[in-house]
């Protein structure tokens, strides 16, 4: 019987990370191992993977423990210990292991269909390694943990009571515009209280990331990250994509805003109007109802999806409760030793909470279908395809939470509006990061000003922000990616284009679309992104032609739900 089943923990924690001597001995054994044949090399790779999986699962579990309870100093210290003590050791030995692999005379005999991505990744990692960056990486993780601690502790004064930040976020979907506005302003006020401290964190992050890039031989952190992420497209492709979306998607976004403005009966479209505000009923009241509802949606879509969700629920691999002291937002993390996935979400009852859970379950189902739980092998353009794809495959099942026909159509339209927003919103973040890291000596005030400029160019194009410029300009502090996952934004928009192609197939033949989803999600990460997309029945293409066509399709789908 596995440790996971009998232990109160949801992850394996068999490796004592406090015993540094024993850990280094195991790593040193791998470094010193003599490799005599390609078969021997494969055995060595399996031994390395098993050790690294155990270490990574323990560290991931400690991170999740902290995110579930950011006010717990013991959990915080364990998470920080992993990054300040264990991570430098891993980085040091990883270089030695990469050198051993890349210089081994039998590496060339390993077939690319199984080891191609590993060969490329280890060679690139070896080329980019810089010992001076090890303490900078440690400091980067410490700053990320500090940000998480601040965000997890954030509360809002609401009607004389102290409420979790996520509780008031859910009120942005309230049908009453006065409540939405009060909630929006209350959230802005809560952010303003922590803004100076978060500015300090970001100031330091920008400088140390710039130093990391210079140490590695790059002119700026943006160029460095493109190599680290091994992107299959260029920086210029990103700028061309920005322009295509601005030319073809933003006008559609503005037209949709005019429709909502008319339905709301308002003359101007304010920031608190750009939310899921047309849904008048609360979709659920308890976490149990949320899980029951999403399970029912999955049952109607594909029984294997539902079985996986039920399994995770039974094994304690879901934390969906909204509570104070818990990190804000949602994510899925792989547990590579036990070969499981953990889904984390912190949203109060709302449409957003339903979609967030479906999105993260898309990630979880993908990793179970794929069987590769080693996150370093993943490419975000692929992983996000299956999370966005799951959202769109379940659009027609939203009547589980919204049985009223009018609300059901509104919920579907809201899901499609989210898709349109995902072609726009992430580009605000992407171009903002391009600017931040190619202008590393900017001030906090300049940073706020640029974020406002990019928001108005993309996501907030149809919104009247007059008198609220400061609040909008500083709202970037809500985005966890800037702190923990830099340059993880454009992938959302690129993969949304692919997911919408999958929706087109679904509209013609649901079973075929689901079959494509499962086939693509099962594809080995050693395939190129283009090949994985093709196995999903779609194309990896974010040219202006595809952007324009996708925008037209999406708009037609929204029109049908009026």
From TrEMBL:
SUPFAM superfamilies linked to this entry: Metalloproteases ('zincins'), catalytic domain
Residues covered by the Peptidase M3A/M3B catalytic domain: 171-508
Cofactor note: Binds 1 zinc ion.
Keywords in alphabetical order: Hydrolase, Metal-binding, Metalloprotease, Protease, Zinc
Cofactor(s) the protein needs: Zn(2+)
Metal-binding as UniProt keyword: yes
Entry-linked InterPro entries: Pept_M3A_M3B, Pept_M3A_M3B_dom, Pept_M3B_oligopep-rel
Family as reported in the entry's similarity comment: Belongs to the peptidase M3 family.
Protein name, UniProt field: M3 family oligoendopeptidase
Organism for this UniProt entry: Alicyclobacillus fastidiosus
């Amino acid at each position: 019987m596995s440790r996971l089943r009998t232990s109160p923990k949801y992850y394996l924690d068999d490796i004592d990370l406090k015993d540094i001597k024993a850990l280094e001995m195991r790593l040193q054994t791998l470094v010193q191992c003599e490799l005599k044949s390609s078969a021997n090399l494969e055995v060595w790779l399996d031994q390395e993977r098993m050790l690294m999986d155990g270490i990574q699962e323990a560290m991931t579990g400690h991170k999740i423990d902290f995110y579930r309870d950011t006010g717990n100093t013991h959990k915080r210290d364990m998470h920080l210990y992993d990054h300040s003590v264990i991570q430098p050791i891993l980085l040091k030995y990883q270089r030695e292991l990469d050198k051993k692999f890349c210089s081994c005379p039998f590496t060339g005999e390993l077939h690319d269909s199984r080891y191609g991505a590993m060969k490329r990744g280890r060679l690139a990692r070896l080329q980019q390694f810089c010992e001076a960056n090890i303490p900078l990486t440690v400091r980067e993780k410490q700053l990320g943990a500090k940000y998480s601690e601040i965000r997890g502790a954030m509360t809002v004064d609401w009607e004389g009571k102290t409420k979790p930040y996520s509780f008031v976020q859910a009120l942005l979907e309230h049908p009453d515009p006065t409540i939405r506005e009060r909630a929006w302003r209350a959230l802005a006020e809560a952010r303003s209280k922590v803004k100076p401290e978060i500015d300090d964190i970001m100031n330091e992050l920008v400088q140390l990331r710039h130093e990391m890039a210079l140490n590695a031989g790059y002119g700026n952190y943006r160029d460095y990250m493109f190599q680290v992420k091994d992107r299959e497209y260029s920086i210029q492709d990103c700028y061309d994509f920005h322009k295509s979306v601005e030319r073809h998607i933003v006008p559609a976004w503005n037209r949709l805003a005019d429709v909502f403005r008319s339905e709301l009966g308002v003359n101007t479209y304010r920031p608190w109007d750009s939310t899921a505000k047309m849904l008048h009923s609360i979709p659920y009241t308890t976490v149990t109802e949320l899980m029951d509802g999403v399970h029912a949606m999955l049952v109607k879509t594909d029984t294997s999806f539902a079985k996986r969700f039920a399994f995770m629920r039974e094994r304690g691999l879901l934390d969906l409760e909204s509570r104070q002291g818990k990190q804000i937002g949602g994510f899925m993390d792989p547990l590579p030793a036990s070969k499981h996935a953990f889904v984390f979400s912190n949203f109060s009852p709302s449409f957003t909470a339903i979609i967030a859970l479906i999105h993260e379950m898309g990630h979880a189902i993908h990793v179970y279908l794929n069987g590769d739980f080693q996150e370093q092998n993943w490419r975000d353009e692929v992983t996000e395809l299956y999370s966005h794809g799951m959202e769109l495959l379940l659009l027609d099942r939203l009547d589980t939470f919204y049985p009223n026909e009018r609300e059901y159509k509104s919920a579907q339209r809201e899901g499609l509006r989210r898709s349109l927003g995902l072609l726009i919103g992430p580009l605000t973040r992407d171009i903002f990061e391009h600017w931040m890291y190619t202008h590393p000596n900017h001030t906090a005030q300049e940073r706020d000003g640029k974020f406002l400029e990019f928001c108005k160019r993309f996501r907030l194009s149809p919104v009247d922000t007059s008198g609220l410029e400061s609040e909008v300009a500083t709202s970037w502090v809500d985005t966890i990616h800037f702190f923990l996952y830099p340059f993880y934004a454009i992938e959302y928009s690129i993969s949304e284009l692919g997911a919408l192609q999958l929706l087109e197939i679904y509209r013609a033949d649901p079973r075929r679309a689901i079959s494509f989803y499962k086939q693509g999600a099962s594809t080995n990460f050693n395939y190129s992104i283009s090949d994985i997309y093709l196995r999903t029945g779609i194309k990896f293409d974010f040219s202006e032609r595809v952007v324009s066509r996708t925008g037209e399709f999406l708009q037609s789908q929204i029109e049908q739900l009026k």
